[in-house]
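Continuing from the previous page...

OK, I double-checked the sequence for HK97 gp10 family phage protein against my notes and this is the correct one:
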Amino acid sequence: MGLRRTVHRTAAEVIRERRERQKELMKTGCAMITADAKLLAPVDTTELKRRIDDDVRQEGNKTIGTVFSPVDYAYWAEQKQPHLEPAVDQNLQAVKNLFRGL
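Thanks. Re-ran it with the corrected sequence; updated structure tokens here:
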């Protein structure tokens, strides 16, 4: 019984550590995309560029990263001069490579 608890606890710790590592890697990937999106964003004023941000969260077994801007006209700016989608495209392989070691 004592050995079972030790193995079970260790497995739970490994899972927790893996999820933490996934979250760290996702934060790194989102930061890369955010930086490029800010470089590519149109500049009428600097508000859009300043307010491009990212968020990483856990939902069950999934680690979800989001790059976004809460600015009202962000959708229309993306339609007129794409900056978020190209930033994702530019960094997709690098982000995938971050997760290869997991």
